[in-house]
Amino acid sequence: MNRDDLTRLRRTDRALPDEAIGSLLARAAYGHTATAVDGQPFQHTSLFWFDAAARRIYFHGALQGRMIANVRANPRVCFTVAEIGRLFPAKTAMDFGNEYTSAVVFGRARLVDDDGEKQRALQALLDKHFPDLRPGRDYRPITPEELSATAVYAIEIEAWSGKQKKGPEE
After folding, report:
1. pLDDT in the model for residue 3
2. Distance CA 76, CA 107 (A)
3. Residue 13: which CATH number?
4. Which whole number is the average pLDDT over 38-50?
5. Which of 38, 115, 134, 151 ranks highest by number of CB atoms within 10 Å?
């Protein structure tokens, strides 16, 4: 399957430009990583950090378990984020609706083995979710032992698409 097949939207009127997809990935709190092994899909939900400059998504997990085994068996992944807006009731069930913004990312996941890259990704993840707290001031910085006990994944983004639905103006 080629990139255009992966990212083609049925409703092109709802397509998000690349800048809006990057903005959504920067602000979304958590995302879902889908893996597949032997035709069986799996999903992992986690906090993440989007490195816009490197066009990469980072998240962490355990050194043992399904995620690490799946990524080693098949590094191709799909990652999604979404935000919901207003809900809209209607006179008929078919016409109920909601606002949303979503993005789907396709790429290859890898286990980060470089300690410098792991440290940077984990610190960026902390900075994203706890922007008012600083290492050495508010908490003890990540130790080498903690770093070696944590799996950090990087998704190398190959393609993405996003869409948005807005409701009627009030």
Report:
1. 65
2. 6
3. 2.30.110.10
4. 95
5. 151
